[in-house]
Each structure stands twice: as C-alpha cells, then as structure tokens.
Amino acid sequence: MLQRPRILRKNRAIRELISETILSPNDLVAPIFIIEGENKKEEIPSLPNYFRYSIDKAIEEVKILFSLGIKSILLFAKCEDHLKDILGTEATNQNGLMQRAIREIRSACPDIYIMTDVALDPYSISGHDGIVENEEILNDKTVEVLSQMALTHALSGADMVAPSDMMDGRIAAIRTKLEEAELTNVGILAYSAKYASCFYGPFRDVLNSNLSFGDKKTYQMDPRNRLEAIREVELDISEGADIVMVKPALSYLDIIREIKNRFNVPVCAYHVSGEYSMIKAASEKGWLNEKDAILETTTSIKRAGADIIITYFAKDLISLID
Ligand code: PBG
C-alpha cells in the first residue's frame, strides 16, 4: 500500500497537529432571555438547564459569561401578556423591557457586545412576526415598525440589531433609519436564510409566542430550497447587512457552506432551541453522551463554514473546548 491515511490518526498529538477545525469561545454568542421582575431566574421546561432572567439576574449571568470568554450576547425579551396587541406596539417602547435591559446591561458590562432580536412575534397577540390583517402578514407596515424597533434598541446602546422576521426590505429600512439617526457604528446581523422549521418549537414556549393561527411559511423559507437562500443573502448584503445568518444550523449545513463559499461577509449559524432540546432529551435518557454530542454538533457547524455560532450550549462549550 502506498497510501495509509491512518498514519495521521495514530495518536492524539498528530491528530491535533492536523486538525482542521478549531472551536473557540471567540466564535460563540449566548442567547439571553429577559423577563420582568427582580431576582428571578426561571428554568425553561422545554430547554432544560436554560433560564429566563430578570434584568438584575441577567447582568450577573452576563458577567459570568464574559469572564469565561463569551463576549457577545443575543437578547430576547418576554413581553408580558397584557402588553401584547395586534400592532406589536410595545416593541417600540423606549422604556420597554428590552430597551431597559439593553441600557442596564450596557452600563453594568460596558465591554459585552450586545445583539438584540428584532421581530414582532413576542409582542403580537398572534405570535406572528408581523402585523396581521385578515390572517395576512403585512410586509411593508411591519417593516416600518421593525425599523423603529431597531432604532430604539440602538438608542438604548445595542451594538448590533438582529432582525429575525424575514420580511422583505427590512435590512434597507433599518440601515436607513440608523443612518438618519447618525448611529453609524451599529451593525445589522440579518437572519437571511431563516427556514420555516419545527426546531423553533421550544423557543416559542420560552417567550410564549405560539401561533394563534396558521404557520410562518409565507415569510420563512421552504426547507426544500437552496437557491432561494442565496438570493435572500444577496439581497440582505446589498441592503447593508454586516453579517448574514443561516438558521437552523444542523439541517442546513449545506447552506452554511454554500453561503460561506459565495460571499465575503461573516456567516453566522443559529443552533436553535429544538437542536438543543434534542441533545438534552436523548442524553437524559442515557441514549447519547451529552458532552460528546455538544462538541460534535457545534464542531460540525464550524466546519461547515460558520464564523459565528449562536448556541444555548455556549457556556457548556467553554469547559468542553478546554
Ligand atoms: C422569531 C424567532 C424565533 C427564533 C428566534 N427568533 C422563532 C420563530 O421564528 O418562530 C427561534 C430561536 C430558537 O428556536 O432557538 N422571530
């Protein structure tokens, strides 16, 4: 035999020398769920060992994450039921929960990079990401509200806004709004190729944003499509996105790779709630080794081409990477 690939797998030292993919805390973004109140830390039933925090508790958690090397967070706020309406009015309240959380985290942890979710689903009675009229999700009216929402986040101190709604034209609208307000160093992380996925199930329990009717297939993408993802990414970059995202991650590794190869902007992958819960559930049953499963799946996302990984395993990964 002239070729023996096993030579390069002989022991740990040589395997480390030739390893192609290196996962680092620098790649990770931790999602943080905020609730009203004080001194609250609630475990989320569908996301075992993941929590919702009141702002004061979130600050403690963010400080811990920062000390562990996780320097970026993605904030989601759980809107109280009595503040929800059909227009998502609370989303643009400069004194809303999200906006207060941004200000307080910013002042307590000046160096943390704060990204914020921009979408109407937690604020809308329908659970949809847009304004609804006769069971139709209205694009342009929604985009107006989203850009105002993004502005309130930026004014509160967000470093980057992350529209997760999949309306057409929202990146351009947000970019224009930020420029008009001279918020010229606020970034946009675009959920560009966001698929209509069953893997968001646990997340909708977290924010109590389950749908009152229909599904999200008129705005989120069809899992059967690849070319459409390229088109969405192209549009978002042309409209001013700084980073583009593929979501979910594991069922869409081919899309991550394709976007990475084709475009010259950083690519982010969202390892979503259902992907977390699957590993948690199987390891609770003793069917998977949890640590190995976490490391293998997140490494595969990096290998596929993601520069940035948003994952509920961010904190667990710190010790695993070591
Ligand atoms: C909604 C939003 C969703 C997620 C992030 N933002 C759910 C949805 O589109 O229904 C999912 C995140 C996750 O599952 O971890 N704007």
Question: What does it look like?
Answer:
- The chain has eleven helices and twelve strands.
- It is an alpha/beta fold.
- Helix 2 crosses helix 3 (97-108) and helix 4 crosses helix 5 (170-180).
- The protein is globular.
- The two termini are 37 Å apart.
- The model has no long low-confidence stretch (mean pLDDT 97).
- The site of ligand PBG has 12 residues, from helix 6.
- Ligand PBG binds next to helix 6.
In summary, what is this structure?
This protein is of the alpha/beta class and 322 residues long.
Question: Rg from C-alpha positions?
Answer: 20 Å
Report, as a whole number of angstroms, the end-to-end distance: 37 Å
What does the average pLDDT come to?
Answer: 97
Global structural class: alpha/beta
Strand percentage? 15-25%
Largest sheet: 8 strands, parallel, barrel
- Please tell me what the overall shape is: globular
The unique ligands bound to this protein are: ligand PBG
